[in-house]
């Protein structure tokens, strides 16, 4: 069976590796011109994501990728008063893994290197334009005029998935949240943090974590008007930093120290919520990762869910001869979990925007926000990939 995976991002590479573990061959294509060496700022992998990556045998490669463990969160109001904390000290014993902060490009490099080592073919510089199911397969057309036939196609092509749009032209598009995320890192004179530090400022939300005198910071800027796609990339990083400093002019320390020490922002990204899709598959086409269910970055779960999807879909394809049965089982196992995290992210995002509307309202919403956060993280982090599980559809009946 010829399996073509569109997108060699986190979900696509993880799927290649998971299929290889299940003894199934596939090919990946991606529009990026070459293997990843840079790009993006940093991300947090949640304990469930670390466990999913571990199940793909990536633990030792990840250790050499410059990530560091960080569990738990502390929240501060605009006056710098600590208002709450989510403890993370016991994450390792409770969930079997700690969260890890790492540069996005390093994670991507690890995944692509592992795919290379496993001899999974990745073709770069190939942008998918259209996907159409024929009687006995799927035809994929590329922007250079070439086309390819496969038995099944997996859309791992991110939040603006072309596979999704080509397969379900009526599917809803991502909705702009009113938030632009901006971030980077800075050399600082601060001790290591043990928990991520979250500041609900009067004009913007600011988060950071410090390791070995480097602060990894991000800020959520309320921006009512949705930017055009690609518009923010044209704005120089220094311009963003000036804007972020201005928004945090009255922020407490060490927020101002971190921003004073930053050379520039790494970039800025508009944040979207993806409305739930009625389904993620047809007979021969299936979506994973952000293409199926982009969750808000505020959840810290997007990358982790992408790896979980990959492992589960590979097991479903391993245990079901018919792709459609495999896709149905994958949907049964994954959709409710992803959608509850999407909803969680939507609620956090609303509260971040609301937090700029005044301290009384902000502090009130925080109480709800934190209560919700504590029970949600428990459910999210507990998830376990079990490669011995039988994913055959009839096994359910
Ligand atoms: C600002 C920001 C911060 C975030 N922080 C976190 C965090 O801390 N923790 C976390 O878990 N998640 C975070 N996320 C979410 C996380 O980045 C995504 O959930 C994750 O990248 C999804 O992986 P993916 O492989 O599905 O999609 P992507 O990583 O977007 O990969 C899609 C791939 O498909 C390729 N592609 C796209 N279109 C085509 C096409 N037509 N043809 C061929 N190839 C194509 C792209 O080049 C890309 O390589 C954040 C997101 C943002 C925007």
UniProtKB/TrEMBL annotation:
Keywords: Monooxygenase, Oxidoreductase. It comes from the Bacteria. Residues 2-166, 279-344 form the FAD-binding domain. GO terms for molecular function: monooxygenase activity. Signal peptide: none annotated. This is FAD-binding monooxygenase. The lineage of its organism: Bacteria, Pseudomonadati, Pseudomonadota, Alphaproteobacteria, Hyphomicrobiales.
